[in-house]
Amino acid sequence: MQTEFLASCISILGNDFVITKEADQYPYLIDWRQRYRGKALAVLLPQTTAEVSSLVQLCALHQVACVPQGGNTGLVLGSVPDQSGQAVVISLKRMNRVLAIDVANNTVTVQAGCLLAQVQAAAIEQHRLLPLSLASEGSCTIGGNLSTNAGGTAVLRYGNTRELCLGLEVVTAQGEIWDGLRGLRKDNTGYDLRDLFIGAEGTLGIITAAVLKLFPQPRAQITAFTALENPDAALGLLKHSQYALGPTLTAFELISDFSLQLVLKHFPQLQHPFGRSYPYYALLEMSDHESESHAIALIEQVLEQAMNDGHATDAVCATSISQSRSLWKLREHISEAQAKEGKNIKHDIAIPVSQIPRFIQVTDTELKRAFPGCQIVCFGHMGDGNLHYNVSAPVGCSDTDFILQQTSINRIVHDHAHQLKGSISAEHGLGMLKRDEIKLYKSDLELSMMRAIKVALDPQNLMNPGKVL
Predict the structure, then answer these.
(1) pTM for this structure?
(2) Using one digit for the tens of pLDDT, what is the confidence trace for 82-114?
(3) Locate the FAD-binding PCMH-type domain: which residues (predicted)?
(4) What secondary structure does DSSP assign to 200-238, as a single string?
């Protein structure tokens, strides 16, 4: 049966795009952090939506599960197969064309395998902005961004990927092609099918193309780095900045001093903005459509007032693109610096913005009591309530021994997030890693409604099985 199935795949794609040798499959089977490796019957690389459709129909006929994959940059094992070796990976990396840009409608239509950076560049060529911005933008794909409802640094101003998407093309679990590539901002004609597939992590169908919103390119983007005494001061600075800057405030990132010290240790070419340490920092960015001088004057007023009010202890404002990039690198390199330091237990949580100082205080205290000497790498998108609250081993404790404490550490972090009406996954999704953990925090009713949708759209349970639910 497998021989017949693979022969049919080759007849659809050609021999070069059906990968069966384990050594050649490796990049598609290993997760981004290289801690888990699945197995696959084959890796399939279609180039057209019609080919995806034919492959899914073939999978349905032969009862073969399929795992959709974009850039494979996820952190929750959502884009890799399990270890049964019975599923196929359908990689969309060859479906990488920008199909159309409608400047007047401020939209771009792209295939799902386009790299995020590629679409950003296409927008810039038309003096437009695709505001989705992630540290992995050079390797993550639009299909993956949509399937996980990716967030990033500009959610405060522009929203998650869901808010940036107007239409989709999807291959259903039955292999049918739904053409919903409509660039409409108003379409009140029944259920919003688009939203079912965004954030579903490939468990309901395979996103093959999308219509995304574009925005006018701002005339100036100004970056500032501020020193803070504590997260309460960060909350005060955020409130003041939102009041003074309104929608021009596009990013507000919180960074603990320990996070910054890791970056400076492992990336010595970067410099400390102040030459001395403070407990916390905030990275702000504003976009202005008037002029650079207007933007600089505004943000300098905000920073001066913040220091007068005691919200900020010190502040620097980038005066060039290179300085701005250097400040952003201090934020963007945190995850990589932490990986260089050793294994860590990651958390991608969402909390109401007003509760972030309380969460940090209470959770820090309990973790340090339960695991003396543990080191907390706290950073993230404070402007939209998303913290990357990671925990590293105490000095002298082996990574292996520390990782054994993951369940207990997760319980403390996730329980506190839940108690504050938060979420255990803000932007990474559930995948395989958190599919059981979520049962502790979602109601039976919520889970049963999710299962009903899954059964209705994928009754054979062949679309990325074992993920999310």
Answers:
(1) 0.93
(2) 999 999 999 999 999 999 999 999 999 999 999
(3) 36-217
(4) STTSSEEEEEEEEE-EEPPSEEEEEEEEESSHHHHHHHH
